[in-house]
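tool=predict chain=A
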Amino acid sequence: MNPSDRRAPRFSCVTLFVMLALQAGRSHAAAAAPPEELSTLPLESLMEVTMVTSASRFAQRVSEAPSAVAVLTSQDVREHGWRTLGAALATLPGLYVSSDRNYDYLGARGFLRPGDYDSRFLLLIDGVRVNDSVYDQASIGEDSLVDMDLVERIEYVPGPGAAVYGSNALFGVINVITKSGSAMAGAQGTLAAGGKGERRGRASYGYHSQDGTDVLFSVKAGTRRGGALYAAEFDTPDQNNGLAEGLDYQRMRGAFIKAGRGGWGFSAGHVTRVKGVPTGSFGAVYNTPNYTRDAQSFASLSYSAAATDTVAVSTRLNWGRADYLGVGSYPDDQGLPRVNVDGDHAAWYSLDASATLTGIAGHKLVAGLDLQRNARRDQFSFDLDPHQSLLDDRRADHRLGAYAEDEMRLAPTVIVNAGLRFDRDSITGSRFNPRTALIWQATPADTLKLLYGTAYRSPNAYELYYAVGVSEGGQAANPRLRAEEISTHELVWERRPDAYSKLSVAVFHYRIGGLITETLRDDGLLMFDNTERASANGVELAAERQFAGGTRLRANYAWQHVRDGDGARPVNSPRHLAKLNATWPLPGTAAAPGGPLRLGVEGQCVSHRLTENAATAGYCAWNLTLVPARKRAGGVDWSVSFYNAANRRYADPAGPAFVQEAIAREGRTFTAKIGYAF
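tool=predict ok
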């Protein structure tokens, strides 16, 4: 197969985007719609109301943030039936998600390296960093700490965030803001059932008192039988003709608590998941019961107060733990199966302290310190019978960061946002990372942003120290790895002609040095190494509009041109991405249970991507969700969702740890969900 012969699919979404852009350019006065319809608008559309905190660690309007910030709301989650954080993020400009039937991986602007466990994104839950200390993983799939029913909004800040957050904020910062107890207002329960044996349940309780005490508590559990997976590379009689049956199962349970009173806040979460691995990855025997078990926990105690009328202080103490266990059958020297147990223990704690100053005319300053101690970065591997230790690596390290950022209003329509951060960690030493943004409100409807920033990512413990089966074609350690670094230039135009419309265009240029990549050496060993420079150029177009009558449309298109240092196109880097999200009330359904119904339609188109030796074809997949138009404060709520409704066959590039060139994605599935608020 010649990858250059592949053509990108024709994107009907692009045509729709142009139509939306033309509509957004026309004035749609707020008075043209009834005032009560404002309650149905996505929060992102209300420019004068929407505030985000993830871009600069203080509240600012989306239009004044030093990034092309995107916001998804609980209304979006409900009307599109998103079950995971990755499903929600995949609808945003320039983002795409791959799956290897064990974990979900997030790519941005054409970058998604095989073997990368989402370590180039910083994931926050209510401002708490939850990337673990072994893989630096930002979990966005079923293994995530985030229950989508508890999401109030998701803020995504694309671009480098190291000037504020330090390592891992290479491609973006994701902050998931959960609901308050007052938003839940009592007890709720939901049950869901779907295809391939899917069963889920959640019970939650929210409380808010007159003295300001606010509490939210929730527990969840789920199971899924899964379906069969075919792999042509294993199509032999002794491997069930390439069909792995009954091995794609999953079991999950978790809990979350959030409480606050006055300036004090506390949150904690836990999730445990067992996932069958049907792919025969990392040399495992195909069609045998291989599985992983992972668990994550976090807890955070915070205090915020106004020290004076112009000075606000905030402190936060965080703790986290993550444990992974992989059990699989692997061939020994004689080709006979042996059971191997592989895993890690991660534990960390951190302290953040910051102060925000507003007493200087025309300035809003924030300065802070954060310290993190990675108390455990342990990795192990051993054979069961007979017992033989293959790896017992125990590590601990620390990092320190100091940052300052100033939002300077040079004129009523001109803002300069400048930040600088110093980081020192015990692995890669010291570095400074700046970020600057010139923001000009050219007209009441138009804002221009000129952005520049740098960021870095220190290699994680897995990339540095994991070494198993070196004499048998396994993986070698590379303790000489350096941090990878990125510099970015971006120009953003945002147009908001009214509260019902938004149009944006972002043009970007990225340069990455020392990119950490999983490679296959000449001797057959996998190893992470600093490859040559990589670069990316691209354009992202996005439009959103709410029409009279309640129809909402959101569409975006991204063109991205990525090249490695030798000029080659990297693996798993689509040239084109196009997305459409639309919801509208169905006529003639006013008498339906729960009132009028809304239909949510979601389309995602991805052009062809290179694999290690070939290419995957481009595809367009569609999801459908039906819900009552309004969610009641009490009583019954329900939804029905069809994912990949057209049963489109497509696959994601696999990487050098797999025999397969690509891993097939799910066919058509459905989920029916019912909830009751007491």
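Helices lie at 12-24, 74-80, 85-89, 162-165, 181-184, 461-465. The first strand starts at residue 51 and ends at 52.
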